[in-house]
Amino acid sequence: MSIQDTFPWTEKYRPKILDNVIGQKHILPRLKSYVSKKTLPNMLFAGPPGVGKTCCAIAIAREIFGNTFNQDFLELNASDERGINVVRGAIKDFSRTLPLGANFKIIFLDEADALTTDAQQALRRTMEKYTGTVRFILNANYSSKLISPIQSRCSLFKFRPLLKEDILEGLNKIIISENLDMSSEAKDALFDVCEGDMRTATNYLQAASSVDKKISVETIYEVSNSAQPKDVITMIEKCLNGNFLEARKFLENMIFEQGLSGEDIINQIYKKLISMSEDKIDISTKIQIIDKIAEINFRLVEGANDRIQLEALLAQIIFIASKKGD
Ligand SMILES: Nc1ncnc2c1ncn2[C@@H]1O[C@H](COP(=O)(O)OP(=O)(O)OP(=O)(O)O)[C@@H](O)[C@H]1O
Ligand SMILES: [Mg+2]
Question: What are the phi and psi torsion angles at 92 (to 5°)?
Answer without folding.
Answer: -60, -50
